[in-house]
């Protein structure tokens, strides 16, 4: 598709994006036929859609950045440990809600933002630890190992907190729902928190595209061609962390998007990061919006979490890509 | 005064490791090709990386009397280009896209390709004779062709000082002669060229000057003919030179 008709992939992305908007507004609990409730339903669905698209775009952009930095198309933004940090921040916020936060947070502060801000703080704390441990001139392997260790550590703490939270059924349920991901009940205020981060992140990712293109040749060659490698590495890590934190803040743990979306789109738009950033922005938004639509239409008793749907779609796609890469001898 | 590349008391090595290069002083003047020679492990590649600031080093490196360490990465890349022995590039980039990487330092983060960028890329591919490969994927061409693409990328930077790390190691005899022809043209235009070579006969045939390294130290520097002399080579390599034997080649212009 990419070689003979390069425009076709952009048409497909546009169709997936705009159809997700239309279908997302039309599908869901409650009938739009009821004139008295129509506006309320549409408003709820609209903000749910916006949040799902922001989460998807943020995760896919994070994926592009981290895959470019590690020169590995199979890298996921979660390898930095900041996704687990954001998740742990969210779990901690939920656990401390009744005992500390309700009384500590001033009355004028919007309560809906406490959880997302907890996620952002968790991610940035993880980022700070990552940067402090690895230092200014650390190699990618130390970044990778530190991120992996931090991720395991935060997941273990999250699991521990989850097990002790089972004493309180309400809190336990909220923690489980958060860890499985979802954008239901997310409104304008969540979008207002995430949108600036995603927009700035997109502009930054676009700005780093040339650097990442040259980094494909390895850090030494890139440095000889004029790339300030330590600076690019540091800022790419900071923005990957921020984008994934924004995604976790509004969507909880939504798996596979950061890995699969850029990887799939790369085979259609090529390895150049400018096109890849734009395609992933649209593709990530459309993917998560469609996954959110599926959570509403898949027949099930109770609600299917968004993270489960993205995993159900993402895991087979990833396995397929992995098998294909192995067959073609591209897997190290 | 344009001196080209000048190294003074340069020692270099790898983090947490011992130095590999010790107190090296050498010059690669403008208008000439300087060969950097030495046995395996003598520190030739490390020395090039030290000049580029890719390994930790102590000492001074000047380009036309400007300390290289005080230039930004972008400024340095427009004045000093590097041709690695082998690229780590595994992504599916076409030859043209790889050569275009050489223009990175000339562009802003958000700007597009200018006509001078396009011209420089075309000219570089033409100079090295790889225009016919421009749409092929870099990963799908031969090792020798890849080395020529890396040279074209270095030429596209527009830099007038060039460091090359064994650029002929994967080339056939015809391509070796073609590459030295390109280097000679660049030197004639006033470029400063420091090229790591393995073949002493190749250095003798194509370089104006030579610097011989052994165990990280300069043991001889001067005209290629003086450096590649029986006594020096015997002491460093443990071999004798016999003149008047073996093959010599020259490029048939009509086949270019």
Features:
heterodimer; A: 332 residues; mainly alpha; ABC transporter involved in vitamin B12 uptake, BtuC; 13 helices; B: 256 residues; alpha/beta; Rossmann fold; 6-stranded mixed β-sheet; 4-stranded antiparallel β-sheet; 10 strands
Description:
With 332 residues, chain A is an all-alpha fold. Chain A is built from 13 helices and no strands. Chain A has helices at 6-26, 35-70, 82-104, 114-134, 140-165, 169-180, 188-207, 209-215, 219-224, 229-251, 257-269, 273-297, 306-327. In chain B, strands 6-7-8-3-9-10 form a 6-stranded mixed beta sheet, sandwiched between helices. In chain B, strands 2-1-4-5 form a 4-stranded antiparallel beta sheet, covered by helices on one side. Chain B has 9 helices and 10 strands. In chain B, helix 4 crosses helix 5. Chain B is globular and about 55 Å long. Chain B is 33% helix and 24% strand.
In short:
Chain A has 332 residues and is mainly α. Chain A has helices at residues 6-26, 35-70, 82-104, 114-134, 140-165, 169-180, 188-207, 209-215, 219-224, 229-251, 257-269, 273-297, 306-327. In chain A, 77% of the residues lie in helices and 0% in strands.
Uncertain runs of chain A are none
CATH architecture of the domain at 5-86 and 161-255 in chain B: 3-Layer(aba) Sandwich
- Beta-strand segment tally of chain B: 10
Strand content of chain B: 15-25%
How would you spell out the order of helices and strands of chain B?
Answer: EEEHEEHEHHHEHEHEEHH
